[in-house]
Amino acid sequence: MKSGPKSKAMYDRAAQSIPGGVSSNFRFWGEDATLVVKKGEGAYLYDQDDKRYVDYRLGFGPVVLGHAREEISNHITEAMKMGNCFAMTNEYEIRVAEKIKKMTGVDLVRMSNTGTEATMGAMRIARAFTGRDKILKFDGAYHGFHDYSLWNTYPPTTGVGYKNSPFLIPQGSGIPRSVGDLMYSLPFNNKEVLEKKLKERWQDIACIIIEPLLGNQASIMPQDGFLEFVREQCDKYGIVMIIDEVKTGFRIAPGGAQEYFGVKADIVTYAKCLGNGFPVAAIGGQKHIMGEVGPGKIPHGGTYGSNVVAMAAADKVLDLIAAGELDKVNAHGKKLRAGWKKILDAAGVPYVIQGPDAMPGIVFTEEPVCREYKHWADGDHDTYNAIIHKCIEKGVMPDYDSREPWFISSCHTDEDADFVLGVFEEAVKEVLS
């Protein structure tokens, strides 16, 4: 897979001023393959060579209502006339908080700028509220780019040790080992291991932070009442349950994973779809916890939090989602799933299609169900990635990394689905023949 000449020239220019030519490591596809975008419109992305792609990356998920959505752009343009950064409360901020409360059932909301900021703030709130320091997460879960998140996000399966006492492996250099002393990471969907750890160490644990589904492992779903079990254990031991909805919030249901799975968090984090691509995030939660955030109590802040542009974007996004836009998202996802099943069954390759219709994932595996990170990690990623490279070459763009699900927008059409499935079938035949 190679980028076109204009994209390549623009990338080479970028690499002279930006490390690796990208502002996030996850965007680097190789010196000859990293694309440079010209524009996005609806469900489509155009590179510098004017090649069009049906976009299922959607900026790693945020653009649930499509690129350059006119209603959102117009709303922001009007809001900008009042200015943007006041570092004071504004009316759009109040409206967004009220809508989040109504749609998700949280009691109080604080605004941030990114999912990383939101999860970092949520962890601090949990520590302050409980008076405990340690954080428990799950293998394969990604909670942002701060030091308390980047443990066992993508570890070698031979390096994490026994499931009852797994090792902690940082994602890369620059993450202090001392931070690992404040972390636990356990296999997802394993009640037995979680219960054992909590019996032994509950008095140290401030919070369990959990993606309701593993959005960085092709949307591995919770099994056998696992989320309900986590909720029960948190109640039993006085541990704060943080549901990280940075990927699922305002995507898989208007009320996010709490609505979809019927489990209520103590604290919940939102970002991505809340702004449809604009940088906005929120921390919501129950009043007895969130009410402790404030001067002289639990610190939280940021110069750009609740800026007018971000709040105006979220204001219109929430209106559109409340009006039923996710119905289109789910319908398109259902059509893709049915088509993939038919194609992969005919190809005779072992596979699992998993996750909600709004963000389904495909894993080539002998496992009947992917329950945890190891099941995904042991899959045939070389074959999947080869198929995806072919798809991108032919104008269909999910992420090339098999960890990412396919993100659906409300702008994707039935015609797009027919084209995408045709391309996917061609790619499968070319790779497997």
Automatic annotation (TrEMBL):
GO molecular function: pyridoxal phosphate binding; transaminase activity
Keywords: Aminotransferase, Pyridoxal phosphate, Transferase
Cofactor annotation: pyridoxal 5'-phosphate
One Pfam family this sequence matches: Aminotran_3
InterPro entries linked to this entry: Aminotrans_3 (IPR005814), Aminotrans_3_PPA_site (IPR049704), PyrdxlP-dep_Trfase (IPR015424), PyrdxlP-dep_Trfase_major (IPR015421), PyrdxlP-dep_Trfase_small (IPR015422)
Taxonomic superkingdom: Bacteria
Assigned protein family: Belongs to the class-III pyridoxal-phosphate-dependent aminotransferase family.
Xref: PANTHER family: GLUTAMATE-1-SEMIALDEHYDE 2,1-AMINOMUTASE, GLUTAMATE-1-SEMIALDEHYDE 2,1-AMINOMUTASE 1, CHLOROPLASTIC-RELATED
Full protein name: Aspartate aminotransferase family protein
